[in-house]
Amino acid sequence: MKYQQLVAGLYAKLSQEIDMLLDGLTVGDLNRKPAEDTNPIGWLLWHPTRGMDRAISDTTGQEQVWVKDGWYKKFGREPNPGDTGFGHTKEQVAAFKSPDGETLKGYFQAVLARVNDYLENELDETELEREVVRPTLNNMKLPVHALIIGSLNDAFQHVGQAGYVRGLVKAPRWRR
């Protein structure tokens, strides 16, 4: 197995977890918080997808699919490439209104398609060490491998949190 396949497999696992997590949830479920000042499921899934979109766009030099494909409209938000949830205040999280689960999945799949194209066609050992300037993060520089690791770490943590919140707001036995 090539390392690119391993990384792609991790992203595919995220996709499976998101699909399972969203199964049967209403928009109300996606926006419900288990307690004041906590994050709802919709935000917990939107945020790492936005982070993935920003990371792959910074890496490839392409416009974020958030803006390019008009996903911001489906989320009722502005086309701000820096609006990823990173650094959101409790008021900003409270103001976030999630669309339905199919829209959340669709946006994730659109970002995942770009990630997979990059993994399959551009990622090699030399590319892993290339430094990427992050324009929406104060021009921070990070190597590609750090962007991939950070993106996966953030996504798995937030998907896990969303699963926990689902258990609190919906039903304790949602996994089959």
Summed up:
By secondary structure, this protein is mainly alpha-helical.
Describe this structure in words.
The protein is mainly alpha-helical. It has a single domain (13-83, 104-169), classed as Four Helix Bundle (Hemerythrin (Met), subunit A), CATH 1.20.120. The chain is built from 9 helices and 2 strands. It has a two-stranded antiparallel sheet with strand order 1-2. Strand 1 and strand 2 form a beta hairpin. Helix 3 (41-60) runs parallel beside helix 7.
Task: Note the main attributes of this structure.
mainly alpha, Four Helix Bundle (Hemerythrin (Met), subunit A), single chain, two-stranded antiparallel ribbon, 176 residues
Major beta sheet, strand line-up: 1-2
Q: From the alpha-carbon coordinates, what is the Rg to the nearest angstrom?
A: 16 Å
CATH hierarchy: architecture: Up-down Bundle
The description of the largest β-sheet is:
2 strands, antiparallel
The CATH topology name reads Four Helix Bundle (Hemerythrin (Met), subunit A)
Number of domain modules: 1
> What fraction strand?
under 5%
- The low-pLDDT segments are none
The total beta strand count reads 2
Mean pLDDT: 93
SS class: mainly alpha
- End-to-end gap: 30 Å
- Using the coordinates above, name the CATH class: Mainly Alpha
Helix content: 55-70%
Write the layout of secondary structure elements.
Layout: H1 3-22, H2 27-31, H3 41-60, H4 65-68, H5 71-74, H6 90-95, H7 101-121, H8 125-129, E1 131-134, E2 140-143, H9 144-169
Antiparallel strand pairs: 1-2
Helix pairs in contact: 1-7, 1-9, 3-7, 3-9
